[in-house]
């Protein structure tokens, strides 16, 4: 695939893009990392395009790999991570963006991914090298980005656009992680699609991100898009955001034309955790856009975020709801540069597969339209495309769709090789339910998470939102609804984190559980089998921060939450 297919980018491979920008603007800043761990104000560490290219070249030369070998990127967030990822690709290998073994709670997932991709080498930093060597075990050559060592003796072949650039392991919210095989062409196509869909001006933009670089949205936003377009990228550690979310918004305000992306919980976190005094200092009128994606979008959260930061110059049209997934690189659809569109659908009609607007019911946020790719809503049984207004599985076709899952031919064929009735082209089955209404895509939920009781469909995020409304102390985004097998039909369970659970007396806890039951019954016609209120941090999440419903269900069935409250 030639460069004219990607007129906005600097080359037809990621390595070519780096070389291009290092030659065109060698002294301009390419990457800045705001290090809040060493300085509370955030020490800025900046690399120019030439400095980045030199570091990548030195690290790539030290990697003892050949074409097709996998290199695990096990660096902490920062400039070394960017260097290590690009070095693996520049060495002719396949990069596997992961995380250092010190990330709490994810050692099991890291071990599973390493076993699946079987890396020849790993890149990390001197500070954590010994921990990486111990975790990776023998047979994996570990190279420190900040001290790469001598160069190998054999040359690196020139990359081709159809070569595999990296494996993007899925978060595992509904199944075990699988490595999506993404080529240079896939990734650069998706960059162009995202820029076109968002209407961004690459000549006047800076990307700002706290998202982990091993996550698909964080990688494409914080590393690949700026690399492809020659933009400056400003990064920070996810922990720095969790500690003080205002840091993210301050960095956005520091750069004219800045844009970013985050999951829905980050909008809620900012709206509820940033103090008035800190808000008064923000300059959010300079922000071009913040994409809201990666998890269900709550319209109430958007309202709170917009109200909280209106005085700082942030306008609703800067929020861009989007839909995407790792199997399509990341970006699929987004809305126009207008205030997010929210439509209320009749709950009973939606349960039977039809989207009909109503005065009261389920409020869903429109996720816009695709750019440079096709989206179909499909009847999963017949493979037939459905008309607007009918709920179906979301299927995607485009140059950004990955080649399959790493060494999983059966799963790859099932997911990436779907056939739409009357169409011989392969389509990607996303596993997500959606509906197209008045031209825009609305997301209804995951097929595997769908709750079916007495033949009626119930979307878990809808039930979760109802349960969360029972008490302000219930943590939004930390409520899980799932189904378990019953005698005649599925039974529904709700697990909800409560901020002051330790101080909640048993009578008050029972009363709150009863209130949740009443609300869910009134709104959804569901009789909950169990309601469990748990302390903060007990709802399992994926490595990208999404709630993991299947893991929560497994914990419930294993008895990890103890006894449910009596009815």
From TrEMBL:
UniProt keyword terms in alphabetical order: Fatty acid metabolism, Ligase, Lipid metabolism
Highest taxon above the source species: Bacteria
GO MF annotations, alphabetized: ligase activity
Start and end residues of each AMP-binding enzyme C-terminal domain: 449-560
Keyword Manganese: no
Domain AMP-dependent synthetase/ligase residues, every copy: 18-406
A Pfam family the protein falls into: AMP-dom_DIP2-like
InterPro entries recorded: AMP-bd_C, AMP-bd_C_sf, AMP-dep_synth/lig_dom, ANL_N_sf, FAAL/FAAC
CDD domains, per the entry: FAAL
Similarity comment: family membership: Belongs to the ATP-dependent AMP-binding enzyme family.
Protein name (Swiss-Prot/TrEMBL): Fatty acyl-AMP ligase
Taxonomic lineage: Bacteria, Bacillati, Actinomycetota, Actinomycetes, Pseudonocardiales
């Amino acid at each position: 695939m030639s460069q004219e297919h990607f007129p906005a980018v600097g080359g037809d491979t990621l390595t070519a893009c780096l070389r291009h920008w290092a030659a065109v603007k060698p002294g301009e800043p390419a990457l800045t990392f705001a290090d809040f761990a060493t300085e509370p104000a955030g020490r800025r560490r900046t690399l120019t395009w030439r400095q980045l290219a030199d570091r990548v070249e030195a690290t790539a030369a030290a990697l003892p790999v050949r074409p097709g070998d996998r290199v695990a990127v096990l660096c902490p967030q920062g400039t070394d991570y960017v260097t290590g990822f690009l070095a693996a690709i520049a060495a002719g290998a396949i990069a596997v963006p992961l995380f250092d073994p010190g990330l709490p709670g994810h050692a099991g997932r890291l071990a599973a991914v390493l076993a699946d991709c079987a890396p020849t080498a790993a890149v990390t930093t001197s500070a954590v090298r010994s921990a990486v060597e111990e975790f990776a075990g023998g047979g994996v050559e570990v190279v420190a980005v900040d001290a790469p060592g001598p160069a190998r003796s054999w040359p690196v072949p020139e990359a081709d656009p159809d070569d595999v650039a990296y494996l993007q392991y899925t978060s595992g919210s509904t199944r075990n992680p699988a490595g999506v095989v993404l080529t240079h062409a896939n990734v650069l196509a998706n960059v162009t699609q995202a820029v076109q869909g968002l209407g961004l001006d690459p000549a006047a933009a800076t990307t700002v991100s706290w998202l982990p670089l091993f996550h698909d949205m964080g990688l494409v936003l914080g590393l690949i898009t700026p690399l492809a377009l020659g933009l400056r990228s400003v990064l920070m550690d996810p922990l720095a955001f969790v500690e003080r979310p205002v840091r993210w918004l301050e960095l956005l305000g520091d750069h004219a034309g800045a844009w970013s992306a985050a999951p829905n919980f980050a909008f809620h976190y900012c709206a509820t955790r940033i103090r008035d005094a800190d808000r008064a200092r923000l300059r959010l009128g300079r922000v071009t856009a913040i994409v809201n994606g990666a998890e269900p979008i709550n319209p109430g959260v958007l309202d709170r975020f917009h109200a909280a930061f209106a005085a700082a110059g942030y306008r609703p049209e800067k929020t861009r709801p989007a839909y995407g997934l790792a199997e399509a690189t990341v970006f699929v659809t987004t809305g126009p540069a207008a205030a997010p569109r929210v439509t209320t659908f009749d709950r009973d009609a939606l349960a039977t597969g039809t989207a009909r607007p109503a005065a009261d019911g389920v409020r869903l946020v429109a996720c816009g339209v695709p750019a440079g790719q096709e989206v179909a809503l499909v009847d999963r049984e017949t493979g037939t495309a459905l008309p607007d207004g009918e709920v179906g599985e979301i299927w995607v076709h485009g140059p950004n769709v990955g080649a399959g899952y790493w060494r999983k031919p059966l799963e790859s064929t099932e997911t990436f090789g779907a056939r739409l009735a009357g169409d011989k082209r392969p389509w990607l089955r996303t596993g997500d339910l959606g509906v197209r209404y008045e031209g825009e895509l609305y997301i209804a939920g995951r097929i595997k998470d769908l709750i079916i009781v007495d033949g009626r469909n119930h979307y878990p995020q809808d039930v979760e939102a109802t349960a969360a409304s029972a008490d302000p102390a219930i943590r939004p985004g930390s409520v899980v609804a799932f189904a378990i097998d019953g005698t005649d039909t599925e039974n529904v369970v709700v697990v909800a984190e409560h901020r002051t659970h330790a101080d909640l007396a048993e009578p008050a806890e029972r009363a709150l559980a009863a209130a949740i039951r009443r609300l869910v019954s009134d709104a959804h016609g569901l009789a909950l089998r169990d309601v469990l209120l748990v302390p903060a941090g007990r709802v399992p999440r994926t490595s990208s921060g999404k709630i993991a419903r299947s893991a929560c269900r497994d914990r419930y069935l294993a008895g990890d939450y103890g006894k449910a409250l009596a009815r």
